[in-house]
Amino acid sequence: MSSRLDQVQPYALGLFRIVLGLLFACHGARSLFGVLGAEAAGGTAPTGAWPGWYAAVIELAAGILVLFGLGTRAAAFIASGAMAYAYFTVHQTEALFPIQNGGEGAAVYSWAFLLLVFTGPGALALDRLFAARGDADDSAKRDEPTAVAA
């Protein structure tokens, strides 16, 4: 059973990354464009307002990058830091534990993105496609005969 699970681990990680990125991008889109229930969540963030508008830009951009697996580790690192900042500056001032201060979402996002920093994107990531294409180009160049200058 364990060996079967190990075989599909990259795909499970890839699906985890896709869902996490999509959900995170939706948060940013809601705050920036007023879609996906923005009225119930307090509307859109005013352009340039600190920290809400900047957080929404990070959510949208990092979410899209993570969703597609482009620069996953860097995008996940930035997203993790943004959510840690949100937790400590907004939520933890209310109470110590996330269950008390409404910061469960920020805490879970922060840890989930930190996990991606260390595990990488998994399967189904554009990073892997570009890396494979680059490896094929490099091996083709090595196989070409080189001209020797006289």
Furnish the topology, listing elements before pairings.
Layout: H1 2-33, H2 52-68, H3 72-91, H4 98-101, H5 104-119, H6 126-143
Helix pairs in contact: 1-2, 1-5, 2-3, 3-5
Question: Which terms would index this structure?
Answer:
150 residues; mainly alpha; 0% strand
Q: What is the helix tally?
A: 6
Overall mean pLDDT? 88
Structural class: mainly alpha
> Could you give the order of the helices and strands?
HHHHHH
Main β-sheet description: none
Low-pLDDT ranges: none
Strand composition percent: under 5%
Radius of gyration, in Å, reads: 20 Å
What's the quaternary structure here? single chain
Residue share in helices? over 70%
Number of strands: 0
Distance between the termini: 62 Å
Broad shape = globular
How would you characterize the overall build of this protein?
The chain is mainly α and 150 residues long. The chain has six helices and no strands. It is globular. The protein starts with a helix and ends in a 7-residue tail after the last helix.
In summary, what is this structure?
With 150 residues, this protein is an all-alpha fold. It is built from 6 helices and no strands.
